[in-house]
Specification:
The complex is a heterodimer of chains A (about 400) and B (about 260). Chain A has ten helices and ten strands. With about 400 residues, chain A is of the alpha+beta class. Chain A folds into three domains: about 110 residues, Butyryl-Coa Dehydrogenase, subunit A, domain 1; about 120 residues, Beta Barrel (Butyryl-CoA Dehydrogenase, subunit A, domain 2), CATH 2.40.110; about 150 residues, Butyryl-CoA Dehydrogenase, subunit A, domain 3 (Up-down Bundle), CATH 1.20.140. In chain A, strands 1-4-5-8 form a four-stranded mixed sheet. In chain A, strands 2-3-7-6 form a four-stranded antiparallel sheet, with no helix packed on it. The two termini of chain A are about 35 Å apart. Chain B has one domain: Rossmann fold (3-Layer(aba) Sandwich). Chain B is about 30% helix and about 25% strand. In chain B, strands 9-13-8-1-6-7-14 form a seven-stranded parallel sheet, sandwiched between helices. Chain B has a three-stranded antiparallel sheet with strand order 10-11-12, with no helix packed on it. The termini of chain B are far apart. The chains are: A alpha+beta (about 400), B alpha/beta (about 260). The complex binds flavin-adenine dinucleotide.
Chain lengths: ~400, ~260
C-alpha cells in the first residue's frame, strides 16, 4: 500500500516517486531470492548510487542531494519496505560518511568527500569489537603514531586489531574506523577514514545470521595498516564523541528502516486477511483479528510519527539525541511486534518461506540490537531524564 | 542535431484501468497517469544518440493537462526541453487526428530549428494501435522506419540504420534523415531518473501550445470526427480457477485427457 506522506517540497514528492519506482521494480522482486542465497547485492547499490540515493543528506557542493533528514529518512523507509538489507546498507553508508561531513576539515572534505559521494562508492563503519559492543570504550584496536624513518610521505598511524560486526566488510570502498590512539578510556579514541585498498586490511568470513542475510557482516582485521595522519578525522582523542554523534543520526536511519519493514508486514497481513476465509467469512471480518491488525497499524503510525518528529528537530538544528534514542526504541520494538503478529495473521502459511512475513520477523530482530541495543537506548533516555551527560552509548 | 521524441501520457497499467461511461473514451481522469513505459525506450534511444554526439532532445506530447507529467518524467530522465500540446477539443481524438496534431507541432518545431529525427515508442500501452508513427511519417513526408530493435547513426549523421526483428527474419533497414522511427522495447533498458535529474528538470523549458497555435481547427480533431467509435465495453471476466489434478495413479492419463479437451494435443 502506498503510504501517503507529507513532504516539505515539490522535489521531495518527485524524489519519493522515483524511490517507489526503483523499490517496486528493482528491489522488491529480488529481495526474497537474494536473501535466501545470502548474496551481497552490490549492483543494486550501484543503481542507487547512480540515482543519487546514496548521498541524499549531504551537501550539494560535494555532490550530495542536500535533503533534510525528514525527506532522507522517508526514502529509507520506502527502501526498507521493499528490501531491508538494502535500506540498512544505505543507512550505514550515511553513517560512514558522517564523520568526514561533520568533523572533517575543509581540506579533507575537498579532497575526499566528493569522491566518496560520487556515484556508487559504498562505506562501512568500524566501531564494535568482539569484546567491545555496548561498551565501545573497551575497544583495544590501536592506532600508534609512527615516527620511523620510512615516513617519507609524512606522519602515519599504524593500526592493529580486530573490528567485529562490520556491515559491508570486504565489500566497502572505504572504512570509517575508530581506534585507540592513547590509553585514556574515553578520550583516547580517534577516528580515521581508510581506503579499502590499504595494505594490511583483511576480512573474516561473513557471519551466518538469522536474517539480513544479503547484508554482509564480517570481522575486519587490521594488521599493521598504515594510515596517513592526514586521514585522521577530528582531533586526536575526539573519536568517541564523533562515533556517538554519528550514531544519533544513524539511529534515526534504523528507526526509519524499522517503520518500512513494519509497514511491509502490515500490508502483507492486511492483504492476506482480506483473502483468507474461515468459518465462511474473510478472517479480517472477525473482530478478534481486525483488532490485531488495528494495533499493528497504530504501532506503525506511532513509530513513523516518532522518528519524523526527531528528524524535524535535527533539521532545525535542535538537540535530538534523546528523541533519536526514543525513535529507535519505539520503531524497532514496533517492528518486532508487528512482524511477529503478521506471522500470526497468516497462520501456518506465515510460518513458511512461501510468504515473506517470517523473513520480516527474522529481520526485525537485529534492529533491536545494532546501533545501540534497545537497552542502551533506554540508558540514553534515562540519563537524559536524570540530567546526567549522555556519555557512552 | 535535433531529436524529438513523441511520448504519451497513459493510464497506469498497474492500476484498474477503465472507460469514461459518458463517451466511452479511456478514463484519463480517475486513473493515475504515467509516461507510457514503451515510450521510455524511445527516450532512452534518443538520450544514447545524444550522448554519442552533440544533440538536443525534445519531448513532445499531445494530451490533457495531466500529460505534463509525461514531459516531466522525460525531462528527469535527461531530455532537454518539452512541448505539451493541449486543448479541450483534442479529447477523444483517434490515431489519424493525433498524428495530425503531432505533425503540425513537429512542423512548427522544424521551423525554428530543423528536426533531424523523430522517435516514437512501438505502441501506446493504452490504445495499442502502433500506427501513429507511420501516419506521422506520411503526414511529414519523411521516411518511416518502424519497430527498430537497434539504432545506429552514420558518422556524418545523415543516415540511420536500424535492426527490425521479425518472426521469420531480421531485416536491416537504412533511411536518410530526417526520418520518423518507432523503437521497440527490445532496443534498450531505459534509465531511471537520478535525483540530480529531478532537480535539473525543474529548470528545463516546457512550452504549452493550443490547437490555435498550430493552425489546427477544432473540427479536425476530437471524438466527433474519429473514424471509429467504441460501441460498448465490459470488464474482463475474472480468471477461472485452475484445474487441479490429484495423482491417484492415473494422473498422467487425466493430464492428457485435459490437454486433449482443451485442444492442446
Ligand atoms: C547484523 C549486524 C550488523 C552490525 N553492523 C555493525 C557495523 O557496521 N559497525 C559496528 O561497529 N557494529 C556493528 N554491529 C555491532 C552492534 O552494534 C553490536 O552488536 C551492538 O552494539 C551490541 O554489542 P554486543 O553484540 O557486543 O552485545 P553486548 O554489548 O555484549 O550486549 C549483550 C546484552 O547485554 C545488554 N547490555 C549491555 N550493556 C548493558 C547495560 N549497560 N545495561 C543494560 N543492558 C546492557 C545488551 O543490551 C544486550 O542485550 C552490528 C551487529 C549486527 C548483529
Amino acid at each position: 500500500m502506498t503510504v501517503e506522506r507529507l513532504l516539505p517540497s515539490a522535489e521531495a514528492y518527485d524524489l519519493l516517486a522515483l524511490v517507489r519506482e526503483i523499490a517496486a521494480d528493482e528491489l522488491a522482486p529480488k529481495a526474497a531470492q537474494v536473501e535466501e542465497a545470502a548474496q551481497f547485492p552490490r549492483e543494486t547499490f550501484r543503481l542507487l548510487g547512480r540515482s543519487g540515493l546514496l548521498s541524499l543528506p549531504y551537501p550539494e557542493e560535494y555532490g550530495g542531494g542536500a535533503q533534510p533528514y525528514e525527506v532522507y529518512l522517508q526514502m529509507l523507509e520506502e527502501l526498507a519496505s521493499a528490501w531491508l538489507s538494502v535500506a540498512v546498507g544505505v543507512s550505514v553508508q550515511s553513517l560512514a560518511c558522517y564523520p568526514l561531513a561533520v568533523y572533517g576539515t575543509d581540506a579533507q572534505r575537498d579532497r575526499w568527500f566528493a569522491h566518496l559521494l560520487a556515484g556508487d562508492l559504498l562505506g562501512a563503519y568500524c566501531l564494535s569489537e568482539p569484546q567491545a559492543g555496548s561498551d565501545v570504550a573497551a575497544m583495544t584496536t590501536r592506532a600508534m603514531l609512527s615516527d620511523t624513518a620510512e615516513e617519507l610521505q609524512g606522519p602515519a598511524y599504524v593500526i592493529d586489531g580486530t573490528k567485529a560486526w562490520t556491515t559491508h566488510g570486504g565489500e566497502a570502498d572505504f572504512y570509517t574506523l575508530f581506534a585507540r590512539s592513547s590509553p585514556d578510556r574515553t578520550h583516547g579514541i580517534s577516528c580515521f577514514l581508510v581506503d579499502a585498498t590499504t595494505p594490511g586490511l583483511s576480512f573474516g568470513l561473513p557471519e551466518h545470521k538469522m536474517g539480513l542475510t544479503a547484508s554482509t557482516t564480517t570481522q575486519v582485521h587490521w594488521d599493521g595498516v598504515r594510515v596517513p595522519a592526514e586521514r585522521r578525522i577530528g582531533a586526536e582523542g575526539a573519536g568517541l564523541r564523533i562515533a556517538l554523534s554519528a550514531l544519533d543520526s544513524g539511529r534515526l536511519g534504523i528507526a526509519a528502516c524499522a517503520v518500512g519493514l513494519a509497514q511491509a508486514a502490515l500490508d502483507a497481513a492486511v492483504t492476506y486477511a482480506k483473502e483468507r476465509t474461515q468459518f465462511g467469512q474473510s478472517i479480517i471480518d472477525f473482530q478478534g483479528l481486525s483488532f490485531l491488525l488495528a494495533d499493528m497499524a497504530a504501532a506503525v503510525q506511532t513509530a513513523r510519527s516518532t522518528y519524523l518528529d526527531a528528524a524535524r528537530r535535527r533539521d532545525r538544528g535542535l538537540p535530538f539525541t534523546t528523541e533519536a534514542a526514543i525513535a529507535k526504541l519505539v520503531a524497532t520494538d514496533a517492528a518486532m511486534k508487528v512482524t511477529t503478529d503478521a506471522v500470526q495473521v497468516l497462520g501456518g502459511y506465515g510460518y513458511t518461506r512461501d510468504f515473506p512475513v517470517e523473513r520480516y520477523m527474522r529481520e526485525a530482530k537485529v534492529l533491536q540490537i545494532f546501533e545501540g541495543t534497545n537497552q542502551i537506548q533506554r540508558l540514553v533516555i534515562g540519563r537524559a531524564l536524570a540530567g546526567s551527560p549522555p556519555g557512552e552509548r | 542535431m535535433n531529436i524529438v521524441v513523441c511520448v504519451k501520457y497513459v493510464p497506469d497499467a498497474t492500476a484498474d484501468r477503465t472507460f469514461d461511461p459518458a463517451d466511452r473514451t479511456v478514463d484519463r481522469v480517475n486513473v493515475p497517469g504515467v509516461l507510457s513505459e514503451l515510450d521510455e525506450h524511445a527516450i532512452e534511444a534518443a538520450l544514447q544518440l545524444a550522448e554519442s554526439g552533440d544533440a538536443e532532445v525534445t519531448a513532445l506530447t499531445v494530451g490533457p493537462a495531466g500529460a505534463s507529467d509525461a514531459i516531466k518524467k522525460a525531462l528527469q530522465m535527461g531530455v532537454d526541453k518539452g512541448v505539451h500540446v493541449t486543448d479541450d477539443a483534442i479529447h477523444g481524438s483517434d490515431a489519424p487526428a493525433t498524428s495530425l496534431v503531432l505533425a503540425k507541432a513537429l512542423t512548427k518545431l522544424d521551423e525554428t530549428s530543423p528536426v533531424d529525427l523523430v522517435l516514437c515508442g512501438m505502441a501506446s500501452t493504452d490504445g495499442g494501435m502502433s500506427v501513429v508513427p507511420a501516419m506521422l511519417a506520411e503526414r511529414l513526408g519523411r521516411p518511416q522506419v518502424t519497430f527498430a530493435g537497434s539504432l545506429e547513426l552514420s558518422d556524418d549523421r545523415g543516415t540511420l540504420t536500424i535492426r527490425r526483428d521479425g518472426e521469420a527474419a531480421t531485416e536491416t533497414v537504412e533511411a536518410t534523415l530526417p526520418a520518423v522511427v518507432s523503437v521497440t522495447d527490445q532496443a534498450n533498458e531505459p534509465r531511471y531518473p537520478s535525483f540530480k535529474g529531478i532537480m535539473a528538470a525543474k529548470k528545463k523549458p516546457v512550452e504549452t501550445w493550443s490547437l490555435a497555435d498550430l493552425g489546427v481547427a477544432a473540427s479536425e480533431v476530437g471524438l466527433a470526427v474519429a473514424w471509429s467509435t467504441v460501441e460498448s465495453y465490459a470488464q474482463r471476466p475474472p480468471r477461472q480457477k485452475g484445474t487441479v489434478v490429484t495423482d491417484d495413479g492415473d494422473g498422467g492419463r487425466q493430464l492428457v485427457a485435459f490437454l486433449a479437451e482443451q485442444k492442446f494435443v
